[in-house]
Amino acid sequence: MVKISGLQKTTLIDYPGKIAATVFTGGCNFRCPYCHNASIVLDTGNINDISDEELFDFLLRRKGLLDGVCISGGEPLLHDDIRQFIERIKAIGFLVKLDTNGSFPSRLKELVNDGLIDYVAMDIKNSPAGYPRTAGISENMLPKIEESVAFLLEGNVDYEFRTTVVREFHTIEDLLEIGKWIKGARRYYIQDFIDSGDLIKPGLTAVDKSMLKSFAEIVRKYVPSVQIRYL
């Protein structure tokens, strides 16, 4: 059973151009120090989980009022039964947007190829060289992330890449390397970091707005559609 650790009943931001609800699944295989959902990622037990019955009762009541459901986390693809979960959402008639860190390329491909995902937002944590320390992972996970990037670049599904920029982890050089990596991407968002008060590593800081604009200009050499998203 997919562990549901949060529900945002309405969002105009999470699914571009759509009115949606956002479901947060518990648990993650990454340990990004700046993650703003630490309680969900670490599965601390401090969150009152939402039952399947409660969630789907809510979604059925919102049929015709919402366009879609965003499935975020944590990392949704960590759950073995995520397919059945998405199938139930699709059966109601909703579009599905998936937020993912890209570390489960086979599962991502299967869901997209079977028409169960309508939009993917994949986090690009940093340049390849900076990935392990930024995401709290080992280097041997990078090939899986690269496989997911390559798959999305093929245009099999509508998608975006996004990077949350943190002063302690990201430099101009990192953003240049990201631009080269995702060259030709459909769209890329540079996200402003905010301290939610629920970080894995407290004390991290945002870069100023002028630096965000500089980062965007660097990436636009490789990706025409680059926007800054203020969270």
Explain briefly what this protein structure is.
By secondary structure, this protein is of the alpha/beta class. The protein has 8 helices and 8 strands, in the order E-E-H-H-E-H-E-H-E-H-H-E-H-E-H-E.
The gyration radius over C-alpha positions equals 17 Å
Order of SSEs, N→C?
A: EEHHEHEHEHHEHEHE
- Strand order, biggest sheet? 1-2-3-4-5-6-7-8
Helix percent band: 25-40%
Give the number of helices. Answer: 8
Number of domains: 1
According to DSSP, the number of beta strands is 8
Structural class per helix/strand content? alpha/beta
N→C terminal distance: 30 Å
According to CATH, the fold-level topology is TIM Barrel
Task: Just name the CATH architecture.
Answer: Alpha-Beta Barrel
Low-confidence stretches: none
- Percentage of residues in strands: 15-25%
Reading off the top of the CATH hierarchy, the class is best stated as Alpha Beta
Q: Name the overall outline.
A: globular
Describe the oligomeric state of these chains in a short phrase.
Answer: single chain
- What is the mean predicted local confidence, pLDDT? 93
Describe this structure in words.
With 231 residues, the protein is an alpha/beta fold. The chain has one domain (4-230): Aldolase class I (TIM Barrel). 32% of the residues lie in helices and 21% in strands. It has 8 helices and 8 strands, in the order E-E-H-H-E-H-E-H-E-H-H-E-H-E-H-E. It has helices at 38-42, 52-61, 82-92, 105-113, 131-135, 142-153, 172-181, 209-219, and strands spanning 4-11, 20-25, 68-72, 95-100, 119-123, 158-165, 188-192, 226-230. An 8-stranded mixed β-sheet has the order 1-2-3-4-5-6-7-8. Strand 3 (68-72), helix 3 and strand 4 (95-100) form a beta-alpha-beta unit. The chain starts with a strand and ends with a strand.
